Protein: ABC transporter permease
Organism: Brotocaccenecus cirricatena
Amino acid sequence: MIVFFYEKVRLKRGAWQTVSIVLLIAFLCAFFTLFDGFICQKEQDMESAYAVIPVTVVVSNLTGTKTDDLKITDYIINYFLSDKYAYGGELQEKAFSSYVKDVCLKASVYYSQGTGFSSRQKLIGITSVDAASELAPVSGNSITYFEGYDESIFTSNKAACLVSTAAAEELSQDTDNNGNVILTVQMSPAATGEAATQISLEIAGTYSSESQTIYCPFSCVAAVQTELDGKITGDSLSATVRDNHELDEFRKILMRHFANVDPSGHQEEINNSPALRYQQFAITVHDETLRETLNALNRNLQTLYRLKPIFACTEVMIGTAAGFFYIHIRRREFAIARSLGTKRIETVIMVFVEICLMFLVGAAIGTILILFVQETATQYVMAAALFFAMNVGAITACLMATGKSGIRLLREVE
């Protein structure tokens, strides 16, 4: 009854103290949760950077000055396209091609419609419109696909092609019974003395240009090259890294088969290749944007990680001090309670219950604030630590205040 009477009177007389402690609890809970949520957001930003920022690898000559007309050998091309990968005579568990996506590959032959070959009359096989600068959006050339066709033809095995608006009318005059363009092709624009073959292609669309270049799926040109030359030879090759988390691992694999770009043209000997003494091509990994973004985010995160334990310790100390002084300034009340016969353990229980009630209300207010601002859950570990710290401070003050008899306490307070 004495405890109940005391609590009832206490709520009426010390309302401002109670409200202050409740608001302090709400602030401390909300602050640390919001701070931790800010760290989580930065970590998510890093994951988003890995997922969103594209990293491309581009094959070039050894000096890095040329990325087209490279005469890329078929074994290099096979690394990017095959689902199997062997190195050092052993089949590797993970294919080289599994590290990349959106492979932009280009290969070319020369065509004629009976009027002779010319270096301007190229039949270029591509895996994507991005592989041809003439078809890229930055070129300003618009592409018009005929009904039933789109840019997916370049990833297929269809015998279809894209021609310039200037060459479309001339090419359509020499077709077979199915309306397909008949072209005679060979590996170089040499006039005579070279093997040639014919290919039939359906016109799938046009691009606005005066060029005489014809674009078709890479598979079509690859088949022609294999027939004429016994192997595939690429002009340019680039790809996008599939998973940027694997970039460091993929970079090591790239160094097995490509040299680093060196403007001086210096070549280092290969120790593990029985066929090649030097690497034939260099590779450039364009990860500048990703690295700059990750470095900036990582610097921010490291600062936040260092601040987190400091804030946690500060909140625990504030909670301990708040609990201690909340009870310490009420020594006279405890002296009266003790003089009325209240046992020491009862005062401790009374303090514990009071702190619990205030903490529940404060934590609830803090949670509402957190959900309103950030829509995330309260940091329960920190809340538990704060609850424990406040009780330690309050109970310590209570034990110090009730260590003597009630009469002696009243005399000391008075």
